[in-house]
Design goal:
mainly beta
């Protein structure tokens, strides 16, 4: 199965840092695809306002390709919470209602001369305010790992499995034997943050927040890579962008191509504190383009390690 690229242990190690940076940069790009000019510090999200159930993005440059698929589902809370509670440490959050939301993001990164990298992420959260509950994240292809995150009132507990050898890397992630656990308390870094979100929940929360509530709002705080980051959103001059994507609705499907007006938004992040004296930015410079009504993520331009500047464009979206 995933043995290519693991036969040379040194090559496996050399590609680890680059793989980590690429995964982090790509996550930021995915989040940018659905952001709007700003978000409230404590938004009152309306699940019914999320216009999509699925969308796919793709970017190609010099033979390198990135494909991302995002899916969302509303599920009964009791059955889902039984899968991951009680957690190993900390006081879990209470839910505002009988349902929770599961957001799934799958990304495949194909770089010339390297084994494809696949990143699967699933996060469960409260649909009302985006409070994170539990997350599973798996990466295969380079620096393989399988992570479980429990989000609590005091901080985040992470349990991580890695393959102990190239032979073990070809087996299911749940069977990997290199195990590590750590608790990341929010601590002083969370001061001034009314709420700490899990980074990928921004995809849902910003779609579920009415545009009028986003205007003039404060930055948000997110937990990412062991640390808390403050993220802000800065509208810039609108422009026209070329598009070519498939739009599906209950009434049918429609190919949309040509030129569309787009709102440009620049995203900035600030690291709050460090972990063991070190820290990494949430993402580097990126520019988002969305439809004026905020329903369609059209394009994002950003810098990614190993690849350079990429333009991820909307390829398909399923609207309610």
């Amino acid at each position: 199965m995933r043995q290519q690229g693991h036969d040379d242990p040194m090559a496996w190690k050399r590609s680890s840092a680059a793989g980590r940076r690429l995964g982090q940069g790509l996550l930021a790009a995915i989040l940018l695809m659905v952001l709007a000019p700003a978000v409230p510090a404590q938004p009152a999200a309306d699940p019914g306002r999320v216009p999509w159930t699925f969308f796919a993005l793709q970017a190609e440059r010099l033979g390198n390709r990135i494909t991302t698929e995002v899916r969302i589902a509303t599920l009964p809370a009791a059955a889902e919470r039984a899968r991951f509670l009680p957690g190993p440490k900390g006081v879990p959050f209470s839910l505002s209602g009988p349902e929770l939301v599961k957001l799934s993001v799958t990304t495949v990164i194909e770089i010339l001369g390297r084994q494809p990298v696949r990143i699967d992420s699933h996060v469960w959260f409260d649909p009302r305010d985006g409070t994170p509950l539990f997350r599973i994240r798996t990466r295969t292809g380079v620096d393989d790992y399988h992570q479980l995150f429990w989000f609590t009132r005091e901080g985040v507990f992470r349990r991580q499995r890695e393959p102990a050898s190239s032979v073990e890397a070809a087996r299911p992630p749940e069977s990997w034997t290199k195990l590590g656990e750590h608790f990341y308390p929010y601590g002083p870094a969370a001061q001034g943050c009314p709420q700490v979100l899990e980074s990928s929940i921004l995809i849902y929360l910003l779609s579920a927040t009415p545009i009028t509530e986003r205007q003039g709002a404060l930055p948000v705080c997110v937990f990412h890579k062991r640390l808390i980051h403050r993220v802000s959103f800065n509208p810039e001059t609108a422009k026209t962008v070329s598009v070519d994507f498939l739009e599906k609705t209950p009434a049918g499907e429609n190919r949309r191509s040509g030129a569309m007006p787009a709102q440009r938004i620049r995203i900035a992040s600030q690291l709050l504190g460090t972990y063991r004296g070190d820290g990494e930015d949430f993402f580097e410079d990126g520019m988002l383009l969305i439809s004026p009504d905020g329903r369609l993520p059209l394009m994002v331009s950003c810098e990614l390690p190993l690849i350079g500047r990429m333009e991820l464009r909307l390829k398909e979206i399923h609207l309610k």
